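== Polypeptide entry ==
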Amino acid sequence: MITRKSKREIEKMKAAGDLLVACHKEVAKMIKPGITTMEIDKFVEDYLAKHGATPEQKGFSDYPYAICASINDEICHGFPREEQLQDGDIVTIDMVVNLDGGLADSAWTYAVGNVDEKGLKLMEVAKTSLYKGIEQAQVGKRLGDIGHAIQTYAEGEGFSVVRDFTGHGIGPTIHEEPHIPHFGLPNKGLRLKEGMVITIEPMINEGTWQSQMDSNNWTARTIDKGRSAQYEHTVVITKEGPVLTTDQEQ
């Protein structure tokens, strides 16, 4: 069932988003060669607890960590680990914050040290594709408009768009209807209405879009070992246009 959020619910989600952004900004300071994603996971859990919040994905379908940490060819749902990040890696940190029942979900890909030119281009295209999708998140537009904007831009830059994982509705639970594909045809699919809250989170690959699942049944990675980057915002559909609860640019 697709729910439209009340003003009170949206205010709670905005508060959760503010905390998530503050946490991501602290994580950004930590990203360097030699740190482990397990250290980042512990930092995030402690940081949220200190601010009266919890990591919503921990325990969701038995997921064991506060963050997802996906490195290089991992597309999403990478497990934090004890191995150190290496100079030249890219790592996506994805987290969902629950603050007083309000949820916020955001992923960000970080460069570890000195990343090569193609890796930096991948990250830039992935980030820009997110905002291309957000531009279409307007009352009266359709889901296909979001996916089409992302797909045409990313493919036009020589990259591919993952099909197997999508954005989603959010609040009061972590994953709700509708699914938000990051590919598609304009003027197709569900029409967006005021009060809907969704995530837009394109996963962009430097090679083919197909994925394969690791033995942990969570982590997806590219089938050709090409790198993958992802950026995600939680977006409120309003009459005035899309409102980001997780705006890292603020």
